[in-house]
Amino acid sequence: MAKAKGKGTKDSPWELKTPPGSSAYIMYKEDDILVCKVGSTTLHYQWRCIDDLHTMLKKHGDWIDLGGADEQKPVKEGTVEAWGRSPKNPVSGWYGLKKGFRGRFGVYVPPLMEALGLAELTHDAKNNKMKAL
């Protein structure tokens, strides 16, 4: 399990890598928003996604595919990405806040949860999964 470098603030963000370890990015909490910076792109998710996803994973009880995808692309049902945009999740839709940049939930949020000690992830070249700790 990767430990989070940084304190999760704008001045000391968490330094993370995607599940395969191929791309680095940062995240930090700003009020009730989880800010994710990947190169020159900034994504915003509702902060509550961390607790909500952890609750869902505990209820699920086993490994679940991440299924990360851009907002405009279809997602595989039964994945973390599908749950992050489902009308059946606790916010009744997208956790992503900025239209056009609401996807990739299954790519960027799970490594933070692993770094915070809330989940375990696989770190294969593709088709990664996660489960609650």
**Would you report the number of β strands?**
7
Label the structural class: alpha+beta
Adjacency order of strands in the biggest sheet: 1-2-3-4
Rg result: 13 Å
Low-confidence stretches: none
Summed up, the domain count is: 1
Helix content: 10-25%
Query: What's the overall average pLDDT, rounded?
Result: 95
Distinct helical segment count: 3
How much strand content do the residues show? 15-25%
Shape: globular
Distance between the termini: 11 Å
**H/E topology pattern:** EEEEHEHHEE
Q: The biggest beta sheet, please?
A: 4 strands, antiparallel
How would you characterize the overall build of this protein?
The chain has 133 residues and is an alpha+beta fold. The chain has one domain. Helices cover 20% and strands 24% of the residues. The strands form two sheets. It has a four-stranded antiparallel β-sheet, with helices on one face. It is globular, with a radius of gyration of 13 Å. The termini are close together. The mean pLDDT is 95.
Brief synopsis:
The chain has 133 residues and is of the alpha+beta class. Helix content is 20%, strand content 24%.
Keywords:
133 residues, alpha+beta, four-stranded antiparallel β-sheet, 7 strands
